[in-house]
Amino acid sequence: MACFLFLSPFIHPQLQHIVAKMTLLDTLLFYVVHFVDKLEAWHRLPVIIGAVYLGIRRHLHQRYNLLHVGEINGQRYNTEEFAHRTADGTCNHPSDDTIGSQGTFLGRNMPPSTSSYGLLEPHPTVVASKLLARKKFIDNGKQFNMIACSWIQFMIHDWVDHLEDTEQIEIRAPDEISSGCPLKSFKFFKTKKVSTESPHLKNGSLNTRTPWWKQHCIYFSLQEDDKLYMTNCSGYESRVPMWELVGIEGDRKLSTIGMEQMLVSLGHQACGALTLWNYPSWMRNLVAHDINGEDRPDPVDMATLEIYRDRERGVARYNEFRRNLMMIPISKWEDLTDDDEVIEALHEVYGEDVEKLDLQVGLQAEKKIKGFAISETAFFIFLLIASRRLEADRFFTSNFNSKTYTKKGLEWVNKTETLKDVIDRHFPEMTKKWMTCSSAFSVWDSMPTPANYIPLYLRPFHLIFIYLVLPISMVIWLSTILL
């Protein structure tokens, strides 16, 4: 213990209060992680060492970044009586029949924000207009296509939907920027705060959906010119207007196109990069849907709404978020990015106060690790939650057997390595004709990955993330859809 006290000046001063709550072993592990963080070196290490770092960090996040909200009132049940997933998510957790089910509290990765800033500080529409609104379309090159984008959209909308209150809020754009806003004002319902009857986290939000993996639809996204480019199997390309694809009528239109044509079209389109000034313009005047899929009466500015929702729901702002993830916070804008244009824009909106920086803006402005489509901060949440979802789901653990999946189904899952294998099983002629890339999540006409004779455990980590970690997680999900 005396050794730890001797090393305490080594810890970033804004992280010392977090380390003080750790056990002796976890404190030791934190020192290892913190040392590597100060060197900014984990992603440049050989894979085996980088994997050890991520394993330690994941252990710490599991201990300190999985907070249960509300009481646990579920019961143990006989899993053999439920050999399939239920629509409301009950009887999915291995030992509790209600965890993760529809209408239960959403868990948290950290306590609600302690920020003293108001919900309109700075104004969400100012943030959206000056930092998020698209200036020109920026894609991911050949790295990811619209199938990858659709997968992410699917998860977000299918797993999480906060229960809304009956009270409406109206956001009006400030006069100085209103002329450039698609909507001068818009209305939406507040997020409903529900008492947890717990002394720790007194209020929480109920999930109107269930976060377990299940069969459902895949959402589609559009390019900047408000068209979805559809390529038929003879190679002819057409542009479908955005207004023909949204809402219930849009769903019907897409269903007539067919899976093969949709996959070819989405596979050949690069998705937008997660960066500032790249938020789709059409989403700033969007007719949103209610939980039943019906059009809402008031269009919304999604870019503005996302900033407001994070603040309303107690999501920590960027620096507080990093501290809660045991990451070194920034002290100036130059710590976040070396892009002078971005630094100037951040200064215009937030001044010199880095603590004001909204999480979404910070994640998109953050310097990205080579090969990563998301920021390091977002990746650490992915590291925690992606594995947690598997561990807590009995259909991937205790009930991952032939009795549940059938012998043939389990054989398919165990022999499938990539999404390309899944698609090829169902559309062999399509993949032969249209897909030259190695990963179905890359743009399909890109060149295949060249042979690499360096052992896996000696390769740079960012390549493993692109070609192994992300595809495997996607394959697990898609296999449950196409089996």
Describe this structure in words.
It is built from 20 helices and six strands. The chain is mainly alpha-helical. The strands form three sheets. It has a two-stranded antiparallel ribbon with strand order 1-2. Strands 3-4 form a two-stranded antiparallel sheet. A hairpin with a 5-residue loop joins strand 5 and strand 6. Helix 4 crosses helix 15, helix 5 packs across helix 10 and helix 18 crosses helix 19. The chain starts with a helix and ends with a helix. The C terminus is likely disordered.
State the distance separating the first and last CA atoms.
54 Å
Q: Name the structural class.
A: mainly alpha
Query: Mind describing the biggest β-sheet?
Result: 2 strands, antiparallel
Order of secondary-structure elements: HHHHHHEHEEEEEHHHHHHHHHHHHH
Mean pLDDT: 85
Helix content: 40-55%
- Helical segment count: 20
Number of strands: 6
Give the overall silhouette.
Answer: globular
Radius of gyration over alpha carbons?
23 Å
Give the low-confidence spans: 216-226, 463-483
Summarize the structure.
The protein has 483 residues and is mainly alpha-helical. The protein is 41% helix and 6% strand.
Topology:
Blueprint: H1 2-7, H2 16-19, H3 24-39, H4 47-64, H5 124-132, H6 146-159, E1 164-172, H7 175-178, E2 185-191, E3 194-195, E4 203-204, E5 227-231, E6 237-241, H8 247-257, H9 259-267, H10 302-312, H11 318-324, H12 333-336, H13 340-350, H14 359-365, H15 376-391, H16 402-405, H17 407-415, H18 419-426, H19 428-434, H20 461-482
Antiparallel strand pairs: 1-2, 3-4, 5-6
Helix pairs in contact: 3-4, 4-15, 5-10, 5-13, 18-19
